Sequence to fold (184 residues):
Amino acid sequence: MSKKEISLTLFPYLLHPRNTVLVTTVSRDGKPNVLAVAWITPISVNPPYLGISVKPGRYSHKLLLETGEFVVNVPTFDLAKEVTICGRKSGRQIDKFKEAGLTVEKAEIVKAPIIKECVAHLECKVANRLKVGDHDFFIGQVLAAYVSEEHFKDLYDVKKHKTLLHIGKNKFTTTQDTYKEIKI
Fold:
């Protein structure tokens, strides 16, 4: 197998495909916004923390600093077009929910909304922010987590749930409806 060197600007794509989510935020005056995020990771189970990377120029970045809360909404593969709209357009200029045809609903704890069309939601408050190069890494404490019973038992049912995986640019893939359980 031959290998080639690539530009370091492309290094993130060597770690893709990545689970893609829609992060909802809200302004102090109650205006909701949504951002597509593929740079997300669990950090701790007990207590529950996750992290998202957001570029400082993004409107959602401003709202994260302003209100200190957000919701991670988990879309399925069939929402790839809507996710692309939310990732490529700015909430400063347009209502991305309207543009993408997504339904805003009230969250259980935080003021940031959930997205009805998504199968899972993680309500978070910002616990910390780290400046890391050209992005800020927001650490969110998970306050509530809920999911569609149809898609999830103790794990996602890959026969029903098609995870939206970002390959890069405007390209997505999904899981197959099979899995391997490895016993050692």
Remarks:
- The two ends are 29 Å apart (CA to CA).
- The chain is about 10% helix and 35% strand.
